[in-house]
Amino acid sequence: xxxxxxxxxxxxxxxxxxxxxxxxxxxxxxxxxxxxxxxxxxxxxxxxxxxxxxxxxxxxxxxxxxxxxxxxxxxxxxxxxxxxxxxxxxxxxxxxxxxxxxxxxxxxxxxxxxxxxxxxxxxxxxxxxxxxxxxxxxxxxxxxxxxxxxxxxxxxxxxxxxxxxxxxxxxxxxxxxxxxxxxxxxxxxxxxxxxxxxxxxxxxxxxxxxxxxxxxxxxxxxxxxxxxxxxxxxxxxxxxxxxxxxxxxxxxxxxxxxxxxxxxxxxxxxxxxxxxxxxxxxxxxxxxxxxxxxxxxxxxxxxxxxxxxxxxxxxxxxxxxxxxxxxxxxxxxxxxxxxxxxxxxxxxxxxxxxxxxxxxxxxxxxxxxxxxxxxxxxxxxxxxxxxxxxxxxxxxxxxxxxxxxxxxxxxxxxxxxxxxxxxxxxxxxxxxxxxxxxxxxxxxxxxxxxxxxxxxxxxxxxxxx
Length: 465
What we know:
- It is a single chain.
- The chain is α+β, with helices and mostly antiparallel strands.
- The chain has helices spanning 25-36, 56-73, 81-96, 105-110, 151-159, 206-224, 230-236, 239-256, 275-298, 304-318, 329-343, 361-379, 384-396, 420-423, 436-451, and strands spanning 5-7, 14-16, 122-129, 139-147, 166-174, 184-185, 202-205, 347-350, 353-356.
- The protein is built from 15 helices and 9 strands.
- Helix 10 crosses helix 11 (329-343).
- The chain is globular and about 65 Å long.
């Protein structure tokens, strides 16, 4: 691990920073947060009138222990001094205000990790927040992380993929909200009195993504009898190579949300749309990363070929069979990619073995990217509802809709006197059910996918203590 240099208060000399998780104050902070979490309600407040509620004095003591631990750890992280000072203030105000709905806007605004993207730099983060794909409630969480910002990635961001808000990160340790499937740290998940005018960073845990990818891909390859090229088989068994592939994939994907012929709001925030539109957007960004990786491979970037295979294998194997089927837009995108490749004979399931034409895969994958880009480009001249139907038509070109779907029957089956957002109610929870192939694969991979909950770089599921 890269050593981080900090200024010592006594000697004015630069010395390697100690790992936060090895400091005796870290387990104290972690224990205090884990004590508080079960007391909180969905919105992050503590209801002292509830049957199993703690005494307010006990909650205050737990917060005091957390603040003291943060203050002991802060000298290890001088780059976050303003954040940790604001964090202590937000915790004190929360306690003094009777533990109502927490408001950590001041500390959120003070936390600026994208301003110091240095490889190996540690951060100690504490917020009341929900963890995407993890805990839906705004509980207090504590996580120690490190920035991943090697020179080759910094150079690509500077010269080709400007993305000043993107933070690639890895776990050091975490509380229970991250002992889940969550692999992101996003500012919009934090409990605040009002959303900031703009968010200034977003973090993705490449170590969890890589470890999860490796385990599921290895299992899927075995189940399907798939033969991988030797270099890609080696990549699947190499955590560092996979992490490098994911940081590049993530950086280009994240950037793609705001580049190209886009709908009015590319992130679709505060919009109510049919879930296949979200699925197409996420898949578009992944396929953009794939397309760019093909170009980067031609330019000699070592990680580029790994990105292509990571996109293909993760999208085809893990995405479709992970999570519930209710509005599973990422799963839908994986189904669509597989079906498109199958339609064009790049993937074939014969004799109970999966075969992939690795030479044609880049060209045919880029064709699907072009189809989605054309959908977006044409959508600029369409009303919203017409655009939604065009998206439905693209997906149903490759995936069979549910036989009971109103949307599959076309506009005449819907009450078009209603506003478009009301017509979303006519979308089935699973408009495009799994194929027989994926139903069988889901059963085979169910336990493997469940085993990746809380996984970290060492491949060990972590249980938050």
